[in-house]
Structure formats: C-alpha cells, structure tokens
UniProtKB/TrEMBL annotation:
The lineage of its organism: Eukaryota, Metazoa, Spiralia, Gnathifera, Rotifera. PPR repeats lie at residues 20-50, 53-83. This is Pentatricopeptide repeat-containing protein. Transmembrane segments: none annotated. Pfam families: PPR_2. Coiled coil: none annotated.
Length: 93
C-alpha cells in the first residue's frame, strides 16, 4: 500500500469475494499510510464487526491520526469494548 499503489491495492481488494480480516485491515492501513484517512474511515465502517481486531483498531487510529481526524479517532477509541495496551498506546501517541 505504498504511494502510487493504493489504486492497485483497491482493485485487488475489490476482487476478493469474501475478504478476511487481513485483507480489510491491509486496505485500511494502505489508505492510512497514504494520508487517505476519510477513505480508511469509510472502509472501516463497511467492515463486518466480527472481523475487527486489535490490529484493525491500531490501523484505523493511525489512519485518523495521520489525517488529522482527531474526533473520529476519539469516537472509534471510545467504541472499543476491550482496550488493550496496543490500542491505548496508539491513541496516546
């Protein structure tokens, strides 16, 4: 998901008939690494809740952080039922 390959990653993601948590999280992270926090947020909200894990939360919180989406990050953080050291550390930094 480096710069210039987000479109390629998106095309590949869209071809997956039933993406697993790895595919969803990788695509969210790809958006985040490229400053596309709004796109990361949209995808996160489309992701089936049962597939969301600590890594997904870390990636979406980082995506929000890199894009200046502080209120969105706070809202997501507050929605996490079981906060781990990783998610707390991500939110603090």
């Amino acid at each position: 998901g480096k710069v210039g390959s987000v479109d390629k990653a998106k095309r590949i993601f869209e071809k997956i008939s039933q993406p697993d948590h790895i595919a969803w999280t990788a695509m969210i992270n790809s958006y985040g690494l490229n400053g596309m926090g709004i796109e990361a947020m949209k995808l996160f909200h489309q992701m089936p809740k049962e597939l969301i894990n600590d890594l997904t939360y870390t990636c979406i919180l980082n995506s929000c952080s890199h894009s200046g989406l502080v209120d969105e990050a706070r809202s997501i953080f507050n929605s996490i039922e079981t906060k781990t050291d990783i998610t707390v550390t991500t939110m603090v930094y």
